[in-house]
């Protein structure tokens, strides 16, 4: 294991369109799967010790998962 591993993890999802609705649906899917992704990815300890892999704050997760949250691209 290397300290340099802390800077190497990237998730680069491809979305079918860049509309606010599409981006929001993908963001919601990600936050709901985040715990599973972290467990399945077997994240290196050096990544866990740096702020680059911090989870979203629970208040933010609740905010974007609200049914009435409908951001726009404006």
Write the SSE topology.
Layout (H helix, E strand, L loop, with lengths): L19 H22 L3 H4 L9 H8 L9
Distance between the termini: 44 Å
Strand content: under 5%
- Helical content class: 40-55%
Give the SSE order as H and E letters. Answer: HHH
Q: What Rg do the Cα atoms give?
A: 15 Å
Overall 3D geometry? globular
Secondary-structure content class: mainly alpha
Roughly what is the average pLDDT, rounded to an integer? 84
Number of helices: 3
Uncertain regions spanning at least 5 consecutive residues = none
Main beta-sheet strand count, sense and barrel state: none
Q: In brief, what are we looking at here?
A:
With 74 residues, this protein is mainly alpha-helical.
How would you describe this protein?
The chain is mainly α. The protein has a domain at 18-65. It is 46% helix and 0% strand. It contains three helices and no strands. It has helices at residues 20-41, 45-48, 58-65. The chain is globular and about 40 Å long. It starts with 19 loop residues before the first helix and ends in a 9-residue tail after the last helix. The mean pLDDT is 84.
């Amino acid at each position: 294991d290397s300290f340099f591993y802390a800077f190497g993890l990237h998730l680069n999802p491809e979305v079918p369109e860049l509309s606010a609705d599409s981006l929001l649906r993908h963001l919601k899917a990600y936050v709901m799967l985040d715990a599973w992704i972290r467990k399945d990815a077997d994240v290196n300890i050096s990544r866990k010790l740096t702020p680059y892999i911090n989870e979203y704050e629970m208040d933010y997760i609740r905010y974007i998962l609200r049914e009435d949250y409908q951001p726009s691209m404006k």
